[in-house]
Amino acid sequence: MTETIIIPLNKLDVDPKNVRKTYSAEGIKELAATIRADGYRLLQNLIVRKGDKKGRYFVTAGGRRRAALFLLAEAGEIAKDFPVECKQREAEDATAISLTENLHEAMHPADQFEAFKVLAGEGKSVADIAARFGTTETIVRRRLALARVSPVLLQLFRDEKLNFEQLTAFTVSDDHARQAEVWNALPSWNRDAHSIRRALTEEMVSATDKRVKFIGGLATYEAAGGSVKRDLFDKHNDGYATDAALLEKLVAEKLETTAADVRAEGWKWVECRASMPEGLHGMKRHYPETVPLSDEDQAALDAAQTEYDELAELIESGAADDEAEAKLAEVEKRIDALTGRPEAYSPDALEKAGAFVMLDYYGRLSIERGFVKADDIDEDENDESGIPASAKAVETKPAIPVMTHSAALIEDLTAHKTAALRIELANNPDVALVAVVHAMLLRVAYPYHSEQSALQLSITHERLEPSMKHAESCKGLAAFNDLSENYGHPLPDNPADLFDWLLEQPQDMVLSLLAFGAAHSVNAVEKKFTDRRKGIEQANQLGRALKVDMSEWFETTGESYFKHVNRTTIELVVAEAKGRDAELSVKAAAKKTEAVTIADRLVAGSNWLPAPVRIAADEAQAVEDQTDIEDDEQFPEAAE
Question: Which residues belong to any copy of the ParB-like N-terminal domain (predicted)?
């Protein structure tokens, strides 16, 4: 017997014979939204049977609809005794009816995509469709994008010859012919979503491209009339510029704006490039020179230095007044202003060399000056004697004392330098990525080259404590050990789980771990017998890229340095750090222990660093200086 009856909502109970016991809370919310959109009407009646108590009924089929109505009642949208149209069946049929309903297949996703497309074609907005089905506008847009995929590919999806992830990759193009072409062209073993998306966008330019970043993003490109194709299924990409020619034009215009200012400097030539020119680092290059002081500025510097020395002597002897320290600080500022001379390129450099205005690896503006093209290099820079001009130009210099460091001290100081490089690299994923790739390319792209990286990648990690005299006082080592302890917490306990764990992490986390791992391999330690000179030189490049300030990681004190060097070196250090008058205080010391104590006091707070622990400011200049030394040794007569 079947009859249609009206039953108050609060008289409907869950049927214990219903085979579906669990409902999705999200699904109930979506169904409630659909009922609301239909004017709180059910498109399909509930199937009920009489309950255990008089006037109550069990819902045999339609448990989700009942739950959705109760949700609306709890929200106050409908009455608790809301009238529900039901069909009554006998108890003996309850289980069979419930099983039959729950065995029905859900709508195929492709059918859902096309149903959304029909609604959109009828003029319904994305917001209306989302409200109608109790979902988000983003999901509706994604479904509509999938509905625009070629019918041929949708049929393959229905036939389970193409999976959902592959189908989403085709939404980056609306060209059905191109979609089919890509699917047929890709080999069966290489039809993953990434390969499909890459093939469809090979003539487009990603929002992450450095050229797009340089002009200010896709918004600038769109403002200039460029069209953008957005991938609704790729959270890491804001879209693709489809007009590469327009993008190149915008890049060129922005580079030319800067190039005009650079040309005004007087260079022989200025070229704009969207990337680094091939062979750039093999070109001859001029570097800026320090502008000499005028006679007036030199006189002012001499006067300021004399005033400084007089004030320092008064302060040292305890005869200065209360304002002496302030006066001394003011004089120091004047001296710094006079000695901090600007640099400029020589007229010869401007006449022969030029500049590149270009984009760096990250899409930032880069201006590289002083490069000389092959045609502008003098054919013969040597005279008939065969002596290079650089050797002839060396001025005769009186012999001066040289700071000397024992092999053990150099190993200790460079271990401190390595510790600082490690912690700085671990905190800079961008530079770490470049450093690791650089180290790898040196091995694979330049197999017969002598260059080495500061990173000992295999990966090799050497403990620094054995190379340090007082490892417990090393700031860099302490910071790196703390960082190691912190990174150890999120990693899985079982190393067999590490790979899968990494696959689940966001890119920022992986990059941070890359920096952390790469930092372990840094090695700038100079031991007595080392064959890593090139790698140690590259450590200075690494330090400059990281903008390492070694004074933050190492302090020159009696314990860390002065007690390990000879009297002459102590005197030279004090002279370099605090001036010749300060050096006299050290010379006056009767014993080395006194000299160490005096030097410790004088140099404290000056940020002076021993050469082995410094980050060389300009490696090109260091190479040039080394060449001059070698020329002096090879041609001693030219240096005399």
Answer: 5-103
